[in-house]
Each structure stands twice: as structure tokens, then as C-alpha cells.
Amino acid sequence: AVTRLQPFGATIFAEITELARSHDAVNLGQGFPDWDGPAAMLEVAREQIATGNNQYPPARGFADLRAAICEDRATNYGLEYCPLSETLVTVGATEAIAATMLGLVEPGSEVILIEPYYDSYAAAVALAGATRVSVPLVRDAAGFVLDVDALRAAVTDRTAMIVVNSPHNPTGHVFGPDELGAIAELAVERDLIVLADEVYERLTFDAPHLPIAGLPGMAGRTVTVSSAGKTFNVTGWKIGWALASQPLLDGVLAAKQFLTFVGGGPFQPAVAHALRHERAWVADLQDDLRRKRDLLTTALSEAGLAPFRSEGTYFVCARVDGEDAARWCRDLPAAKGVAAIPVTAFVDHEEPWRDVARFAFCKRDEVLDEGVRRLRG
Ligand code: PMP
Ligand code: GLN
Predict the structure, then answer these.
(1) Are the CB atoms for 248 and 193 separated by under 8 Å?
(2) Domain topology for 53-277
(3) Whose CA is nearest to atom 9 of ligand 2?
(4) Rounded to whole angstroms, how far apart are CA atoms 269 and 85?
(5) What tens digit of pLDDT does each residue of 316-351 get?
(6) Beta strands 239-243 and 87-91, pairing class
(7) Which tens digit of pLDDT belongs to each residue from 48-59?
(8) Cα of 169 to ligand 2 centre, how many Å?
(9) Separation of CA 345 and ligand 1 centre (Å)
(10) pLDDT-based confidence at residue 10 (cuts at 50, 70, 90)
(11) Span from the CA of 169 to the centroid of ligand 1 (angstroms)
(12) Which residue's CA is the closest to the ligand 2 atom numbered 1?
């Protein structure tokens, strides 16, 4: 076995989803919606297959999808990217993240992760032969906030990159202008690359998403990653993208071409269609998820857990009252017929996350209601 990857084992999502399946549990663990995306988008994918779009797409993705991605960024945030040289279609955000690390981080350098962090970051850092350094998101009265002093203190001469995931999985924290401003200032001062994982950019419930690439000095040092999976309920299509200035994007492409080369041919025109024509559907999704967030947050309190405030994503975290959440989550499918993810799966330091579990609310109302009924029971 390759020792570089030995510490990672099987992902927590594979493990908990398998447990959920074997106990016929309501799966509030792995974050995927259990209803379909916009019908017209699905129809475009079917038509594409029927009319022969079944071979390799171009290396950077179909030009029309790259144009649609850039139009969407410009409309949403006023940020301009060149579809020819600054836009790359990838096999989900996961590949964009791995290719960014492999293409832009030298072995022996350091990558800063904000803890808790999405599990693929640590594995991608290891694949690149780099070392991760984690700085905490801390809990305060309003929810969560970046420890900016810890971030400053974590930068060394070997630091190459900071990974910023907002809206944040697993906490649902949406980074505000002060936090993003502090990260950007530090990145400029210490000449660092920022990898901005914005897969939940459209799933914010209280304040709008702010892309860090739009802050002063950041356009030329940020690789922004997003994906159609969370925006259009198609997590299985694995159509993602990376946006960056040409020198950075060339590095990402250098790695990406040897990972998958290309992917998702017939889905790419469907995602282009959705980016252009399904804004109303996405607005409804956002409203729906806001309501589901409220429903699950209230229900978790009523079930005796202590939920934190979630401002975005599919997730709400809750304290499971002094218990070891890893054990609690492994017992939960058998004990209550519900599945959840322990937040310790996303950390290097167990405290203060030992008793915190993550629950997904991206489920149909009847499924959420049944999950809630079981948790209370
Ligand atoms: N980043 C974060 C924060 C995620 O939660 C996920 C999984 N949903 C991904 C990246 C991976 O996205 P994709 O499914 O497009 O590869
Ligand atoms: N991103 C989703 C989550 O955090 C699922 C990821 C996965 O299954 N790898 O739950």
C-alpha cells in the first residue's frame, strides 16, 4: 500500500451511508438531495445522449459551457473571467481541488486548511506531497468565526496556499467581509495562493455569498472552484469547474489533463442550459432549503440536541450533549434509524468538536419529517 494515503482509510461518507443502508435508516449523513433538478436540464442531457454527444469533450470543456460559467460569475458577482484561458471544466469540484493542489503546490510546502475542513482537502494535500497546517474556525455566540490570529501565526516561509471553503461544509458558516478581508490581506502580504471552494455559493440563507477572488489583490492569486452538483441537484453528474488567472489555471490544467483528461460530455450542455435558464429554479431551491434548515434546526432542539446556527450549505451541526459524536453517529442507524456524520471526521484536533454531529437537511419534507420523528422517539 502507498503510505502517503494510508492515514485516510475509507471516507466517512462511504462508511455512514453503508451503515444507513444496512439499517434502513433515514440518511441525514451524506449531503446529496433526494429529488431531481430542473426538468428541462435533465431533458437536455437525454437529448445530448440521443443525438450522439458521447465522445471525449474538448480538454478544457465545451466552449459553450465555459461561456455560460463566465456569464454566471459576471451576473452574480460582477467578476470577469476569460472563457478561453481562465476557465476549466472538471470532473466535479473534487477533481478541481486535487488538480489545483497537484498543479500548484510543490512537495514539501505547506497548505493551510480551516478546521473543520471537507475531507478531500487533506488527501489532496497528501497526494501533492505537501503538509497540511490547520487553523480553527471557532464557535462564538453568533455561530462560527475564523481565528484570524491563528491564521496569521500559521503562515511560514513554506506556506504555498490557503484553502477557504465558504459557504462552509460542515458548519454552514458563511464567511463575512471581515474574515475574507483578513485572509486576502494575508495572502497578498505573504504572496500566497488561495483555493476558494464555493460549491455551496448559491445555497445561502441569511447573507449573500462573497467570492474572495473579488477582493483587492486576489484576482491573480485565487483559484475558485465550484460545481453544478449542489446548484442543480445533480451531485452524480460531477460537472465542476475552476476559474483563475491564466498562469494559475495553466497549472491546474497541467495536472487535470492526466487525472481524467476530460469528463461528463453529455452533461456539459445540460449544465450550460441550467446556468442560463434556471435562475428561478435555483431561487426556489434556496427558499426551500432555508425552510428545511429552519425545520431541522428546530427539530434538533426539540430532540434534546443543541444545534448551531447554519447560514448556508446543506448542513446544520449540533452538539449531542457530552457524548462522543463518533460513537453516537455509528450507533445512531441501529439505535434510532437515522444517520448523521461526526464532525471529528473533518478535523485534526478533536476538541472542541468531539461531541458535534452534522445533519443534512437537503431531503424531501416527508423524509426530513420521518428523520425528525425517529430522532425524537
Ligand atoms: N467541496 C465541498 C465543500 C463539498 O461539500 C463537496 C461535496 N459535496 C465537494 C467539494 C465536492 O464536489 P463535487 O461533488 O462537485 O466533486
Ligand atoms: N459533499 C457531500 C458531503 O459532505 C458528499 C461528499 C461525498 O460523498 N464524498 O456530505
Answers:
(1) yes
(2) Aspartate Aminotransferase; domain 2 (3.40.640)
(3) 13
(4) 19
(5) 999 998 789 999 999 999 999 999 999 999 999 999
(6) antiparallel
(7) 999 999 999 999
(8) 9
(9) 15
(10) confident
(11) 9
(12) 31
